[in-house]
Amino acid sequence: MGNICRSPTAHGVFQQLVDDNNLTVNFLVDSAGTHAYHVGHQPDQRSISTALGHGVDIRNQKARQVHESDFEYFDYLLVMDEHNHSIIMETCPVEFQSKVRYFLDFASNTPLKEVPDPYYGEGDGFERVFDLIVDASNGLMDEVRGR
Questions:
Q1: Of 43, 57, 110, 137, which is most buried, counting CB atoms within 10 Å of its CB?
Q2: Helix (H/G/I), strand (E/B), else coil: 18
Q3: Per-residue pLDDT tens for 10-22?
């Protein structure tokens, strides 16, 4: 929603996979929120800390809102939950709607469809989100590499 928890974590994790596989010239990884609550802000400190604990640095990211040009420009438009899916589908031109997918469609180790929003939660919510994102990122990498 605000581009400070789940999506910047996914951005960072997938970017790390791209970098680790020497595919940087083939990919532009980005993240955006459906709401403008935090535009220009760093990711949530809890997301930063969790990612850093796993060797992923997301401190330089800045939140932005989805722009209409994103629909044409990007090959994948990945959403974290049903609410964001609904918002994106309402604004996405019909010819680009096939690009919209749930991020967890690429995960192989969970029956979940949605990445839970850890923002208001307590405990290990950010760790759980990180694990789900790693799983989905690995599956996405497999798909884009044609495995």
A1: 43
A2: helix
A3: 999 999 999 999 9
Kind of pairing, strands 100-102 and 77-79?
A: parallel
Residue 76 sits in which domain range? 6-144
**pTM of the predicted structure, to 2 decimals:** 0.95
Residues 37-84 have pLDDT tens digits of 999 999 999 999 999 999 999 999 999 999 999 999 999 999 999 999
Q: In the structure encoding, which two tokens stand for residue 143, read together?
A: 């798909």
**Angle at CA of residue 137, ends 36 and 92, nearest 5°:** 40
Confirm whether 1 is domain-assigned.
no
Q: Is residue 113 part of a domain?
A: yes
Distant-in-sequence, close-in-space partners of 85: CB < 8 Å, separation ≥ 6: 79, 100, 102
Let me know if residue 60 belongs to a domain. Answer: yes
Residue 37: which CATH number?
3.40.50.2300
Helix (H, G, I), strand (E, B) or coil at 69: helix
Whether residue 79 contacts residue 103, with contact meaning beta carbons closer than 8 Å, is answered with: yes
Take residue 111 and report the two structure tokens written for it. 């029956």
- Span 17-50, pLDDT tens digits: 999 999 999 999 999 999 989 999 999 999 999 9
Look-up of token digits 């979940």: 112
